[in-house]
Specification:
Blueprint (H helix, E strand, L loop, with lengths): L1 H12 L14 E9 L2 E9 L8 E7 L6 H8 L1 H8 L2 E6 L23 H16 L2 E11 L1 H12 L6 E5 L10 H10 L17 E6 L8 H18 L6 E9 L2 E9 L5 E8 L6 E2 L8 E2 L5 H11 L4
Parallel strand pairs: 3-4, 3-5, 5-6, 6-7, 7-10, 11-12
Antiparallel strand pairs: 1-2, 2-4, 8-9, 9-10
């Protein structure tokens, strides 16, 4: 069943495989490889053109199954936004040797902890880019789609000292599954967001999630679980109710209605944002038609995530 589902994803994405990301004058979209232990990870790095004053924010973008860096960059349009706001964008690429369908292994227990598996590999690559480029260490965010969204959540929870904010589109909570069978159940029905406990409970990073309410691949309750897990962790961190208030608003953007729920502390600080895009399936909201897993209609997930990231530097 699990392989059948990923095969369905593959058939959807095949027409877009290998398309180059948009070319932006003066910028670079370079290739690289990162070796750590027995693993080698390919990546692409977007460097904006033009003179920049001081260190730049870094956004780490994790693709979905069957995708690669160029496809994900094209579909999200993040490079054009990064050029406008002066950000570096890192696109790690999962290898076929690590997963036959190039999915990040978010559902395997060996990839749930700090210092091990893919979280350690991705954190190591992020630190390398920070060492080689002028990166603002207070503005290093991670985002992803589907399997990439689930891995982004894991990175934010296991490396809160490295990542300042997390964006998850159509993803799942940390610990939603520990094997292929439980992954299928979580994707279909949602999951218990109460597990696992944070390995570093002293720091909780802000989270923004997007999910289409017509998604038949990953149940929309999984994104709600990401929010609940983050809020519960903040309460546990302070060992008291933090007085979190939620304000909901509705609107329409790009031809699709949406509901946005914003969770704030009593101080006014935003802990989490949840966007539900009505009528959208398993696709990046407001994306580019030249990329896979995109819906060209709806609010731009890329614009809203980048806004959220820039507004939430590390404490």
């Amino acid at each position: 069943m699990f392989n059948t589902l990923f095969e369905a994803w593959s058939s959807l994405t095949a027409p877009w495989q290998g398309l180059p990301a948009q070319s932006i004058a003066g910028s670079r979209f370079s290739y690289g490889t990162h070796e750590e232990g027995a693993r080698t990870l390919r990546y692409r790095l977007f460097t904006p053109g033009g003179a920049r004053d001081g260190p730049m924010p870094l956004i780490v973008m994790l693709h979905a199954c069957c995708q690669d860096a160029a496809d994900f960059a094209s579909g999200t349009g993040m490079n054009a936004l990064a050029q406008e706001h002066g950000c570096l964008v890192l696109y790690p690429e999962q290898s076929a040797s690590a997963h036959w369908n190039r999915c990040w292994n978010w559902y395997e227990h060996s990839h749930h902890q700090r210092g091990a598996g893919e979280p350690a590999l991705l954190a190591g690559l992020t630190r390398r880019i920070m060492a080689e480029h002028a990166v603002d260490p207070a503005r290093v965010a991670v985002a992803g789609l589907s399997a990439g969204g689930a891995m982004a959540v894991i990175l934010g929870r296991t490396y809160p000292d490295l990542f300042s904010a997390v964006g998850s589109h159509s993803g799942l909570a940390h610990g939603s599954a520990t094997c292929e069978a439980s992954a299928m159940l979580a994707m279909r029905n949602g999951s218990d967001a109460s597990v696992p406990a944070l390995p570093r409970p002293e720091s909780i990073v802000p989270v923004i999630v997007f999910h289409g309410d017509a998604d038949t691949t990953v149940h929309r309750m999984n994104s709600r679980s990401v929010i609940r897990q983050s809020l519960d962790s903040r309460v546990a961190q302070r060992q008291e109710h933090a007085g979190v208030a939620m304000v909901a608003e509705t609107g329409c953007s790009g031809g699709r209605a949406f509901t946005r729920e914003c969770h704030r502390e009593g101080t006014g600080a935003v802990l989490a944002e949840e966007w539900t895009v009505h009528g959208t399936g398993h696709a990046w909201s407001g994306g580019n038609r030249h990329g896979s897993h995109t819906d060209t209609r709806g609010p731009s997930a890329s614009e809203e995530m980048l806004r959220f990231f820039l507004a939430h530097p590390a404490a």
